[in-house]
Amino acid sequence: MKLDPEIVRQLMQVFAAELDECLLAITEGLIALEKDETGVGRERCIDGLFRSAHNIKGAAHGVEARDIAEIAHALESLFSAMRRELVAVSAGTINLCLFSVDCMREAMTAFELQKPSGFDLQTLLLQLNQWQITGKADAPLLAEGDESEGNRSDADHPRGQVPDDIASAPPSGVSELPCPEPRPAADELKSAAQDADAAREGAVMTRVALHKLDLVSALAEDLLASRIEIEDHLAALQRLHHEAQSYANNWARLAAMPPREFDSVASAWERNPVVMAADAIGSLKLGIHSIYKQMSGSSSRLGLITGSLQDQVRTLRLVPLASLLRPLARSVRDIAQDLGKKVEYEVVGDEIEMDRPVLEGIKDPLMHLIRNAIDHGLETPKERLARGKPEAGRISISVASTGNRILLTVRDDGAGISVAKITAAAVRKKLLVASEAEALTRQEALELIFRPGFSSREMITNISGRGVGLDVVLSNLNSLKGSVQIETVEGEGTSFILGFPVSLSTDRGLMVRAGGTEFAIPSVSVVRVMEVDASELVDIEASQAIVIEGKAVPVRDLSAVLELEQGLSSLQQGRLPVVILSNGWQSVALLVDEIVGERECVVKRLKAPLISIRNVIGGTLTGSGKVVIVLNPGDLVTSALRMDSGLRARVQAQGRPTVAPHVLVVDDSITTRTLEKNILESQGFRVSIAVDGRLGWDALQKEKFDLVVTDVEMPVMNGFELAGRIKSSERYRDIPVIVVTSLASEADRRRGIEVGADAYIVKGQFETKVLLDVINQLI
Q1: Which of 91, 95, 607, 688 falls 20 to 30 Å from 681 in CA-CA distance?
Q2: What is the pLDDT of residue 176?
Q3: CATH number reported for the structural domain that contains residue 606 in this entry
Q4: 743 is in which domain, residue-wise?
């Protein structure tokens, strides 16, 4: 019997959610086994692995996902052999099982898209079957369509291949070889997988506790009762309206009579017409007062119900932090193996819940901090033993809730951060001068690591990042109305304390008017609201600032920052309203036309493709139904500080043309060239293009460029060769080079470091905002 398509879609959603849960359980169980669990703990762990594989097999058969079912069946058999101690729990066993988990994820993507998987299923099944018999596998697993050796680096494993060394891997707990993620055999599957992920975002399934639904149901019933009350009030108002209309008609008719006729009619009445009118007005007044009291009570009850309902509906969107923090154990393991380090990962408090958009927003900053902790914070096992520390480093994440905010602490027991080295590096990179460095407090010196340009080239392109430094961690947190603090002790370790709201849906906003338009600025980023006299503006390096608590804060006109036509309308004599915003270590004073006041806002955030609009978070509605744009404080500070001149300088320069940065885009794909050119030109850059590295090098000889964006795989001269030639040239070495490529292996990233690329962005992870952020840091 053929099922209804909607039923099939829902069934696939349920299966995908169950598969994710079971694969996470298998991953956690395998990592736990790798820690040398013995006795009852070991048996319980393997039992859990067996059950998860068995559940996947049954569910996959139910939806006819045959590839997944076969892999799950082979894993089930292997776990059964482990339970009977026929197969040792070794690093090789763990690596093969984790690789199989990755293959099932890829097989799920291929199944949803009705495309072939990018790995050799039969070879994988053969290895799993061999392993449960002999404890090793001989056949290499090679992705379909990837038989050419010419494009591989010696340092990289073939796509989709289990390392040959897996059979001779060291005992449990001493594994040094990473298990590579399986990659699709064709670029089309990669692209389609991204489309499928984006589509799934709109159909994310969240488990909801039954008692939460009961509360929502009870509030919905109360809401229905309030609606009935309102209908009764409307009926009473209608009766009162008819009565008032009758009085009005009668008095209008009497008013139209001639005086003699009116007197004769009035003399026939039993009561004086004026007294009758007063009685009628009194009756209407009493009726209106009665209805007002009833409606006031109903309105209060309705406000309580809708407020409670809104709170309860918001809780339905909340998901536990465990859904983000638990899967990170696999990433910690893989990164540690890549770097030859041993790391213990611990999480406390991950049962705390938060809004899914916030959870998604902290994912990248958290991953960046963990990579940095493993790469730069934790010492090698040899170094740790020499310092009297345990061989394995420790990374712990603790979560605490304080009202409507969450504090997440990422702590490592590594070497700590040297304040002296930070300030020396900042001076060397010309982020500040020596005298400024000496005047910094310890905390101010630590916060230098969040400044753009502080990260080294190795941090940009290797394990620690994707073309950006810790400044983007701060930027991402600011976009979530979050914050970050650092605590460090040299030789003992470092803690990063992240603070962010539970939900982004409601906020208090400062309402301001600029350029004739009303805007809302989230109050959490507003440091101060004040008025200044035009005479208080001081000139600093062709810009203007005001002095607050001994520090100069740059002043910018908000309407000019937002590129509104009335960009200079606020420049007038007298008291000027100013809003002080903070974005990490940066602050700016924004001049506005008027400060309207503060109010609670329900923020509707922008959706794709509008999500990258500069300076805007979303919108909110006023009580009258007017749409007000909600501004992004982090973007505002960044945009304001990038303006070339201050207020008086802009007045003098009004009408004078400015020269935009010139960018050279080198790519043999017309689609990619056009995309990047349009993105950059929309942001005000001048763009020239070249279709290969040789033509790109020729263009450098003819024109002056401020930055080069290049692909790698191109005819005549590839991107690595072009970058190497630029960086080895005394004339061009200071031109920043960004590599944007589909090559995602560590070997390719290392090659990018070696040739001197300033940033490395993988096309599969490509986003407009990422490219623009990196360019704005480097220019």
Answers
A1: 607
A2: 34
A3: 2.40.50.180
A4: 662-778
